[in-house]
Amino acid sequence: MSKQTLYIANQDFFEQVEQQLATASELLIPIKGTSMHPFLQPQRDKVLLTPAKHVPLHKGMILLCRLPNRAYVLHRLIGMDGSGALLLQGDAALGQVEKVQQQQVIAYVKAVQRGSRWIDVSSLSCRIYACIWPKQVLLRKFLLKLWRKWQSFHYICKQ
User: What is the CATH number of the domain that holds 52?
Assistant: First the structure.
């Protein structure tokens, strides 16, 4: 039996995710996109989402949010502004920050599945990473450039 892949539009996919999370306590979805490199990678990682209703949010959490333009992002909470809006940023982003309201938060990442291994994002190592990584802009810029070079080199060597 051959394995088949179904491709659907991102917005349609996340609308289904949002509907599922309205009744489910958890939902495992694959990662698509590179905005959360190096922590999350497509084709390698899946995230276990939990509805964010009635959950106190704190810096470092990875949140699934619906933006005002109806796009969806899965980014890290890096703070709040003076009006109480949540500030989100992808781990690979160096300048772009999304601003969302609490009611736009759909879910938070509870764990990451990497192959057969599960990573609890509330573990000490993940909390340290979440605390340090967003604050080190120059180091992040250097490490992301190094990461991208390694990935392209790795890709070339595989062919």
Answer: 2.10.109.10
Does residue 108 sit within a domain? yes
d(CA 40, CA 38) in angstroms, rounded, equals 6
Q: What percent of the chain has pLDDT over 90?
A: 51
What range defines the domain where residue 84 resides? 10-158
Query: Does 2 map to a domain?
Result: no
Taking the C-alpha atoms of residue 137 and residue 150, their distance in angstroms, rounded to an integer, is 20
Exposed e or buried b per residue across 107-122, where buried means at least 16 C-beta atoms within 10 angstroms of its C-beta: bbbbbbbeeeeebebe
In a domain, 5, yes or no: no
Which residue is listed with tokens 């992808």? 90
Average pLDDT over residues 101-123: 94
Residue 143 within a domain = yes
- pTM to 2 decimals? 0.81
| Structural domain count, the chain | 1
Share of the chain residues as helix, strand and coil, in percent rounded to the nearest 5: 30, 30, 40
Cβ–Cβ under 8 Å, residues 52 and 75: no
